[in-house]
From TrEMBL:
It comes from the Archaea. Residues 14-241 form the ATPase domain. GO terms for molecular function: ATP binding. It holds the Pfam family ATPase_2. It comes from Caldisphaera lagunensis (strain DSM 15908 / JCM 11604 / ANMR 0165 / IC-154). This is Putative ATPase (AAA+ superfamily).
Length: 351
């Protein structure tokens, strides 16, 4: 079902994207592949579909819920959970590794004590077979322990010819920063990666997507509805799926839009809440900057003025610089102070 809001897993459920899938397949023997693009563009779906199609043993590490200051225990449990879900595929290899215990249908990676396994050890063992390791939302691996994971990927890049890593990231600047390909201090410095950037659907493709989705639901919808949805959601497949799904429930385009805006607002508030844990002043500034930009303030000096008016206080150049750079690295705004996602823009007006 096209309007199913979970990531797609089978090629038959995925609309379009043949070219992108082919490009990944053509590069699958490279050590490191990146799938990037804004939120809801279809990164996880493409990763899953490709892995399903290839029939090469694989597992996916889902970093989405990793806390910013994750512990070694958090990191290793991501790996043990991912591998446990494919236990039968990897059982033979795993049973030979010291530091891994197999308990029923799950595994435990020991990361301290007498017998422990490092991620590099683990990759060296997995290298016995051709294996693809997916890391979804890999920029979440930034943080105090990022060195171990980067060291181990760099080690595998050089020594484990049977392994391919496919990383996805919706916060594209942060993903590049995490890898540090251009940073001489990073273990991955200078390594080549193949990056596939997913673009949004154009108007024709969006229309086809919606028509096909409504057809699957055997729902006759007005032309105005199709065009209304296209106008609102700018070809981002995840929003189109949500809109199709919601419209089929409530038949009210305005309500559909409000639901989407609320979903986005929730995500933005979560982001601001994370900043709030560091400093309430910084959190407030993010809120103000996003609100100013959402109202169409589209140059540095106009943003400074807007903040001064809103908050009744001045903001230093370096603080504003930092906030704007972060919003760019999070793929929320572009170089021209425009929101990348029209629904994020609408939601930010309400901040
Ligand atoms: N090509 C497609 N065909 C059908 N549905 C799609 C397609 N691309 C994305 N979707 C749908 O859009 C939604 C978002 O897709 P997905 O989760 O794969 O995107 P994502 O880029 O990983 O998003 P996020 O950044 O939130 O992790 C899901 O409901 C998915 O089913
Ligand atoms: Mg995803």
């Amino acid at each position: 079902m096209l309007f199913d809001e979970r990531p797609k897993e089978n090629k038959g459920d995925l609309f379009d994207r043949e070219k992108e899938i082919e490009e990944i397949m053509n590069n699958i023997n490279r050590p490191l592949i990146l799938i990037t693009g804004v939120r809801r563009i279809g990164k996880t779906s493409i990763l899953k579909v490709v892995l399903n199609e290839l029939k090469i043993p694989h597992f996916i590490i889902d970093c989405r819920n990793l806390p910013p200051n994750y512990s070694k225990g958090n990191l290793y449990s991501l790996f043990s959970n991912a591998i446990s879900s494919k236990l039968s595929t990897f059982l033979e290899i795993l049973s030979k590794i010291r530091g891994i215990s197999i308990l029923g249908n799950s595994i435990e990676l020991k990361w301290k004590g007498k017998e422990y396994v490092t991620l590099s050890d683990l990759f060296d063992h997995l290298n016995e077979k051709r294996i693809i390791i997916g890391i979804d939302e890999a920029q979440k691996l930034r943080g105090p322990l990022s060195k171990e994971i980067k060291d181990s990927i760099a080690h595998a890049y050089d020594y484990d010819r049977n392994l391919t890593f496919i990383l996805t990231g919706s916060e594209v600047g942060l993903l590049h920063e995490f890898l540090g390909i251009e940073n001489s201090e990073s273990p991955l410095y200078g390594r080549y990666y193949h990056e596939i950037t997913l673009e949004r659907f154009d108007k024709d493709k969006s229309e086809l997507f919606l028509r096909k989705g409504f057809e699957e639901l055997r729902l006759n919808v007005d032309e105005n509805v199709i065009h209304g949805i296209i106008e609102m959601f700018d070809g981002i497949p995840g929003w189109l799926a949500l809109a199709g799904n919601q419209f089929s429930n409530n038949r009210d385009l305005k309500r559909v839009k409000n639901i989407a805006i609320n979903v986005a607002l929730n995500e933005i508030n979560n982001l601001i809440e994370m900043k709030n844990n560091v400093s309430p002043v910084v959190a407030r500034r993010y809120r103000t900057v996003m609100r100013c930009i959402a109202r169409g303030t589209n140059s540095w000096s106009k943003i400074v003025n807007c903040i001064q008016k809103e908050e009744g206080s001045t903001i230093s150049t370096s603080v504003l610089d930092n906030i704007l750079n972060n919003l760019k690295k999070l793929s929320i705004i572009d170089e021209n102070y425009e929101f990348l996602d029209p629904i994020y823009k609408e939601a930010s007006i309400l901040l």
